[in-house]
Amino acid sequence: MSEHGGNILGVAEQYGLPANTLIDFSANINPQGAPERVKALIKNSLADIEKYPDVEYRHLHQAIAKAHQCDYAAVMAGNGATELIYAVTRYLHPKRALLLTPGFAEYRRALQQIGTEIIDYPLTEETGFQPDLRLLDTLSTIQPDCVFIATPNNPTGLMPDSQFMQSLVEYCEKQRIWLIVDESFIDFLPDNRGLIPQVAITKHLYILRSMTKFFAIPGLRLGYLVSGNTMGIAEMKNRREPWSINAFAARVGEILFDEHDYIAATHQWLKSQQHYLWTQLSAFTELTVWRPSANFLFFRCNKLNVDLWHSLLKHQLLIRHCKNYAGLDERYYRVAVCNEWENQRLIAAMQQVFAHG
């Protein structure tokens, strides 16, 4: 099974199903689809396929810096946030790293590729799958070179306490621990600016952002890294392979921050459908559901004789199994918030599954 959601073709091939009949709840992509202006821009820019993109991606970096009111030299765009996870890991080359589990698989893979000693810090059900100030005690004991943390977390969708995050940033800066904060899903939280404003006063903080999920452009691949360590950003740019971002993705990235109507409509959709899915799933006595902050929900199936993944696949619904996340087992799942009709189909299918055991 894939380590990531969105593997519609692989699942369809494995189970002999037509891919176009499956509804994908396994990938956390905005169901509104890409903004219309994005589609028009690509259609009108087809001649760009015959030219190399700017190897420095100047306009794209300027747009990101302007959107976040930060220094142009603090920004590095990439082929999705994933490219930048590997770039920052290779640049920092930590001897020892702490990973919160469960968490996104690519942090571990990137660290393993350079031989880093990885220490797992389990987020448990007893602590609500949330880190707290005890993490700082652990850091002082094991003294890692770097820490990865996702806000909101993937797969739990939970957002750590803001005061805790502030304490973590200050502690890591004081102790010279590289803190890599993955904010790939933070755009779905309308009132949360994240930690990018703090890069102006820090040198050990690195913020990862994705444009793929919120703007529904996973096929284009686009993300960016922001850090107050501008020398480090420059070094990463110098080290990486040229032209890793295609011309269309670069052009699209220049206009996405101006999609104010799309951004507002997304927040309105999510407020409605996130609440619907949360209340409907929470009504099942067979499930334990954690209150979401982003565009996906994390839950445990308490009925041991039910394999929800295979059962829902029979209803042409693909959800994300979480058993391959460190610290989780086959009882845990994640589902994206989709459009109203798709969310209703999921709830109806679950009712049938639990009714028939």
Task: Write up this protein.
One of its GO terms (molecular function) is threonine-phosphate decarboxylase activity. InterPro entries: Aminotransferase_I/II_large, CobD, NHTrfase_class1_PyrdxlP-BS, PyrdxlP-dep_Trfase, PyrdxlP-dep_Trfase_major, PyrdxlP-dep_Trfase_small. The chain has 357 residues and is an alpha/beta fold. 38% of the residues lie in helices and 16% in strands. It contains twelve helices and 13 strands. It has a seven-stranded mixed beta sheet, with helices on both faces. The protein has a four-stranded antiparallel beta sheet with strand order 9-10-13-12, with helices on one face. Strands 1-11 form a two-stranded parallel sheet. The longest helix has 23 residues, at 260-282. The model has no long low-confidence stretch (mean pLDDT 95).
Which descriptor suits the 3D outline? globular
* SS summary, helix count: 12
Low-pLDDT stretches: none
Helix content: 25-40%
Instruction: Give the oligomer, counting copies of the same chain as homo and different chains as hetero.
Output: single chain
What's the end-to-end separation, in Å? 24 Å
Total E-strand runs: 13
Look at the structure and give the mean pLDDT.
95
Radius of gyration: 20 Å
Structural class: alpha/beta
Largest sheet: 7 strands, mixed
Order of helices and strands: HEHHEHEHEHEHEEEHHHEEHEEEH
Portion in beta strands = 15-25%
Order the strands across the largest sheet as they lie in space. 2-8-7-6-5-3-4
